[in-house]
Amino acid sequence: xxxxxxxxxxxxxxxxxxxxxxxxxxxxxxxxxxxxxxxxxxxxxxxxxxxxxxxxxxxxxxxxxxxxxxxxxxxxxxxxxxxxxxxxxxxxxxxxxxxxxxxxxxxxxxxxxxxxxxxxxxxxxxxxxxxxxxxxxxxxxxxxxxxxxxxxxxxxxxxxxxxxxxxxxxxxxxxxxxxxxxxxxxxxxxxxxxxxxxxxxxxxxxxxxxxxxxxxxxxxxxxxxxxxxxxxxxxxxxxxxxxxxxxxxxxxxxxxxxxxxxxxxxxxxxxxxxxxxxxxxxxxxxxxxxxxxxxxxxxxxxxxxxxxxxxxxxxxxxxxxxxxxxxxxxxx
Length: 332
What we know:
- Helices cover 39% and strands 27% of the residues.
- By secondary structure, the protein is an alpha/beta fold.
- It folds into two domains: 3-225 and 301-331, P-loop containing nucleotide triphosphate hydrolases (Rossmann fold), CATH 3.40.50.300; 229-294, Alpha-Beta Plaits (2-Layer Sandwich).
- Strands 6-7-8-3-9-10 form a six-stranded mixed β-sheet, with helices on both faces.
- It starts with a strand and ends with a helix.
């Protein structure tokens, strides 16, 4: 794969006291789903606004599909699709009319637009509601329409900024099924932010975590979770002996602690350590009464790198609110 997004020492400073993005560098590979996570105010939306040409960087460089975001803004906008946090569809138009409006803004030829609109409305399950006014749509239907609009001009990369925020779990699940289908069928690159870590864990090929304007971690979900320190085995044992030292000596075990008749064992790879730990316990003549293997979660990794769980992070203040107000004024 080749990089479709290249970011080099990107900086955004709003004032002497407000440094929203602090010299970040990373790449996004073509065809991957890339997650961009961080607490509120960490610089997520500011970064996306710069990459989508809504904000001008203070310094540094970034390219989208080889196009410089500073010098070729119009070309960048044609190469990308954007589904923002806030709904932008027109309530007084039908779903189909909103799609034609979006196609006209991107100069998509009418014949081509007609064909693609029918296909996209079908993809997001809105063909039966296409001629209804959008003000009659549910929140999930509106979000699905936004997704279809972001794809009307066949972008090479689709930016999704909190695309399922506030939606019920069934609607969120349906939207992510559409996203996975798009990747599988069209090899489209997806750059997303989300506060739902289970979504990022299940969908993303790689995840970047940003905090205080800096990239603090970037890897696959599995590697980020392993970096927390290993899987945890919880083993109930009936024995008069303390087996802590015996268990801790098993290859692959990082640590072992005993609480009453239960041992909590941290291992590099739990599925490999479990049979060896159980064998050592049985050979000692002890009886195993229960075994549970749990793996580190993405929220634990998030906590490790930012010092806050995602839930706590949602309460934090925000440089990005400043960024949002600057971007809004720029769009007026």
